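One-letter codes give the sequence; backbone shape is given numerically. An example follows:

. . .
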Amino acid sequence: MRAEAAVSRIQLSYDAPPGCPSRQDFLDALRARTRASWLEGSDTRSFEVRVGRDADGRFSGRLEIHQADRSSSARVIRGDSCSAVTTSLAVFVAIALVPESGPAGLSAGEPRPTEGRGGDGEAVPDEIAAPTAPLPPRSPTPSSPGLTATAHAPSDRAAWIWSAGYAVSYLHAPEPSWGGRVHAELARGYERAGVIPALRVSWGWSDFSRLPALAGGVSFRLQSARVEGCARLGRPPIIAAACAGADIGTLAASTPPIPRVTKETTPWTAGSGIVRATWSVTPWLTLELSGGLLVPFERPRFMLGAPTRLVYRAPAVVFEGSAGIGAVARFR
């Protein structure tokens, strides 16, 4: 009970993906490797434990130890199972908690911090980052706050993230307009970063029709290529993105019921602002929802003669929404 109460006073943040040991499991593993006598003084250090799955399917864990008046230190370890990685990180924390004079009073039969093993086998420390400074020592200062929880991203290595997909699109033009759009996107950044930049290119079309007086039906098709710069936020399974871009294409009108009138085409250019939410069903399959506004740089007009009348004029703002599916690949 003394060890349990002592461990609860440590400033510790813990983040791991679903399916990994919980923070309580991590604290239990830490309690099994510490003694209450090691924690009798106050400790102003904070411990940050982050675990994530890498692109190759293995798990990586990182321990950072911070102290206000000293340089931070870090340990990185990788393993085939999440439980093995978290157990190894618990061992590192226990070692850091050992008083400078050593774990006095341990008998020969008692387990030492370095003897702990995870339920799935020990993680292999094949990638240990040397600390920038020695592990910060304990310092006697007033009381430390209790446990805190913070969110961190899973990896510290830059990655290329490529995706491609197809979406069903809807435009309010203001007539209902349905179509589709294909896209490809490339992003690069550190997964632990708050924002990752991305470049997205796409091509799509939308069809709608109008029924002006004395003219029968007039069919319209909007086709455009789009280039967007995006800021991706969050980490799998949920990624949000805010994008700004530009469209260039054509808006064509055709009037099959009217003799001697076939098709008229005009250029289409517009600025776009889109927000997207992507859910990773699997590491390589995503579902995507988006919504945003298009602002035409010029508002095309279509007229009919005898008598002259306006058939259609593009609105100042066009709403666009879409739902789609995509494939994702990551490269280091």
Summary: The CA atoms of residues 183 and 202 lie 4 Å apart. Helices lie at 2-7, 23-31, 82-97. The domain at 158-331 is CATH 2.40.160.20 (Porin). The chain has two domains: 2-115, 158-331.
